[in-house]
Amino acid sequence: MKFKKMFSVILAVALMFTVSQNAFAIKGENDTRETAMWAHSGFAYSSYTNRFDDEDWFKIYNDSDYSRLVILTLENDIYINYDIAAFYTRSNGVETSIEAIDQGQGKTDMCGFWIQPGTTAYIRVKGHNGSFGWPGLETTYRLFINYQN
C-alpha cells in the first residue's frame, strides 16, 4: 500500500512538470510577431523579458460569427515595469493598435479592444523603456486575456 501511494505521488509530480507550460524567457520563442504564442480567453501567462530589446508576443483568433471584446490585464512586478500593446483589425478593415496607459512598477495595466470575426490579433509585452528581468528575483509579469462576450 505504501509503495502504491509513493508511486502515485511521484507520477503526479512527474506529470505536473511534463504538461505544464514553461513560462520563462527562451530566446526564439514568442519573441516576434511571426513566432507569437497562441492564446485564448481565460489565458494566464507569467514570464519576463531578459534583454533590453526582448519582447514577448501572443496571438488570439476570433472564430465566432460576431465581434468580441477582449480585455488584457498585465500585472507588473514591483521591481520591473512592463508595457502591453495589442495590434488588431477594425471593422472597417484598417489595422490599428492600442497600448495600455502605463501604471508603473507593481501596478496593473489594462486595455481592451474589439476583435472582429475571422481575424487574428497580436499582443506584445515588453519592458518599459528597455527594462528587463531575470529569473529568481521576482521580476516577472503576469498576462491575462479574457473575452467579455
Write the layout of secondary structure elements.
Blueprint: H1 2-19, E1 37-38, E2 43-47, E3 55-61, E4 68-75, E5 82-89, E6 95-99, E7 108-115, E8 120-127, E9 141-147
Parallel strand pairs: 1-3
Antiparallel strand pairs: 2-9, 3-8, 4-7, 4-9, 5-6, 5-8
Structure commentary:
With 149 residues, the chain is mostly beta strands. It is 12% helix and 39% strand. The chain is built from 1 helix and 9 strands; from the N terminus they run H-E-E-E-E-E-E-E-E-E. The strands form 2 sheets. The chain has a 5-stranded mixed beta sheet with strand order 1-3-8-5-6, with no helix packed on it. It has a 4-stranded antiparallel beta sheet with strand order 2-9-4-7, with no helix packed on it. The chain is globular.
Run of helices and strands: HEEEEEEEEE
- Low-pLDDT regions: 3-24
Percent range for β-strand residues: 35-45%
The end-to-end distance, rounded to whole angstroms, is 49 Å
The main pleated sheet reads as: 5 strands, mixed
Q: What strand order characterises the main sheet? A: 1-3-8-5-6
The proportion of residues forming helix, as a percent range, comes to 10-25%
**Helical segment tally?**
1
Tell me, rounded to a whole number, the average pLDDT: 82
Q: Whole-number radius of gyration? A: 18 Å
Secondary-structure class: mainly beta
Q: Can you count the beta strands?
A: 9
Shape: globular
Keywords: Signal
